[in-house]
Each structure stands twice: as structure tokens, then as C-alpha cells.
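Hey all, quick one. A colleague (J.T.) asked me to put the zinc ion job into the tracker so the inputs and the C-alpha cells live in one place instead of scattered across chat threads. No bug as far as I know, just bookkeeping. Sequence used:
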Amino acid sequence: MPFRLRNAGATFQRLVNKMFKEQIRDTMEVYIDDMVVKSKNAADHVKDLDQVFNELRAYNMKLKPSKCNFAVSLGKFLGHMVTRRGIEVEPWSLYTDGASNDNGTGVGLVLKSPQGDTLAYSICYEFKATNNESEYEALIIGMTTALDLNIIHPEVNCDSLLIVNHVRGTCEAKDCKMMAYLEIVKKLQSKFGSFTIRQVLREQNIQADALVSVGEVSRQMNISNIPIIHILKPAMERNEEKHSVMDIEEGEHHSWTINGLLQRCLEKGEYGQVLRDVHDGDCGNHTGGRNLSCKILKMGYYWPTVKQDPIEYVKRCDACQRHAPIIHQPSELLHSSIPSWPFMKWGMDIVGKMPPAPG
Ligand SMILES: [Zn+2]
């Protein structure tokens, strides 16, 4: 081993690839020490197995009987389902949850792969919906995401019994909105190879449920990103260390954005200068409030009121107010008045002496 055990996996894979070069793809699949012998016809299976055993014997390799399974017509292999139809990807689980209140609708999605990878989404809708509608929205966005990720056999877990029953067809959707939602779900369902949906208890759906709350809170507090900080040690042990996770330099706080950008957290006396420089400094172009706040965030600065302050700053900028585009639209709609009899109201505007018409 030239690099000790670091390339043991790759070396072993090369060995098995060489050993079974005749069988791989045809009657065998090998991934390091996981092997599956497959046959199109049951009658050929013993012959195919015999070939594999001969190869193993020739290279003096042994298999552990307790880890071998024979005559398996259906089973899991490296995150794939071996079925009579062939080898397919094992279902992925999808957990959805939706909740709604006066401020809007929130959706949480958790996608779990058979290999244990997890994808989490927290989605905010800027419109009001009932709880059932928000559950449908969660299911639809979950199915769309699964399709985008090329998941063809999703296993959907939803905590709304009503929606599960609608999709399974055990209960009829009566409300016209529910019927419209169900139709979208059915259309999406037809695009999957297989589709299973089951109802889970709220306690089993805590991750998706928590993501809904994260979305809700960030919207209510007008926060565009919530940094997630992993603290490895309890406070008494952390105090002994010189710097915490957020401290980079003495007296300066930094935080990482969700995109991996390092932002410097400014204190009260500091951000006025940043606002001035970005808005009307040498390269400032007097942009609007929201644009200005995005520009500041992109430049790597952050403070808790970074969304509101630029809007207020632009309102106070003299140049922005003087050169703002003039709105020619009347402030209210024009009203037409209908006279009760002809010439009830009429006006005349004479500008000057009227020239006599020629001829
Ligand atoms: Zn300005």
C-alpha cells in the first residue's frame, strides 16, 4: 500500500474490477466489498454463481457466510432496490409540513436519502391560506423538489390525515379549492415511477415542523438569514478559550452568511459611514433603499437594522429627493360629474382675441 490504508478502498476496488471483469455489468455488480450476482433467468443463476465462486477460489478469496444472501428476488443493495424489473433507486423519504397564520403561510420540507443525506428547506409564502391549503402547498412544493432532484420513487410523509386520504382516494375532496389542489397533486404523481404517501404523527414530523417555525420567525422579524452556530463545548469550557466562534479579531464580530460570505457586524457608530460611502460616496449611485441594503450585505457588512436603515437614509438624502422621478399620475382618480339638464355646468376660457376666420 503506497499511501498506507488511505487508498485501501480504491486498491481493493481495482482488484475486484480485475477479478470480475468478465462478469461486471453482465451478471454482477461490485462496489468494493459489496457484490451482487444477478441473472435474467432463474435457471442461469446457479451457473452464474458457480462462475463467481470459481473466480473467488482462483484468487484465494473467501466470503463470510453470515453476510451472504441467496435467491433474493427483491432487496436493497447500495441504496438501490433490486427488483424483478431491475435495479432501481431506493425510495427517498420526503417529510412535508405546512402551517398558516395571519401573517402568511410557512412550509417545511425534509428529504432523506437512503444513504442518510438530508436536505432541508424552509419556505415562506407571502399570502394567506388555511391550514389544509398550506399542507397542500407543502406537498406540492415537496413533490416538485423531488422531481427536480430526479427522485422517482418518493415515500411521502405528511401529518395531515385529510390530505393523505384525498391523495389515496379514500376520502373525496369536496371544497373547490381542495379539488384544484388535488388535481395538481395527481398530475405531479403521474410523473413518478411509484409514489407512496402515509400519515405520520406530528411527533414523527418534528424536523419539517421546526422548519415551518424558522420560516415564520424570520418573516415576522424581517430577517433574511438566520446564522446557525454549532457550539461544541459548554459555556464554562468555552470561557477558557480566547476566541468564540463569532470572534475573529479583537473587538470585531463576524458572521457567516448562508452563502458562505463573511460579514463584519458593525456597531452603532460605524454603519453611518458605510451608508454614506455606498449611497453617495465616490462610486455611490443613489440607489433606492432596498437595493442599498442588498448592496451593503453583498459588500460584507451587517448590523441588526440593515434592512430598515438604508430605506430611512434614502428618504433623508437631499439629492435623491430633488432628482427623484416626477410622478405625473394624479394622486386620486378623476371624478366625472353628470349634469342633470343640458348646460347645467359649463365654463369658458378665452385666451385672447379670436382671429376672424378667412372667407
Ligand atoms: Zn441619494
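Adding what we noticed when we looked at it: The chain has eleven helices and 14 strands. Residues 279-280, 286, 314, 317, 319-320 surround zinc ion (CB under 6 Å).
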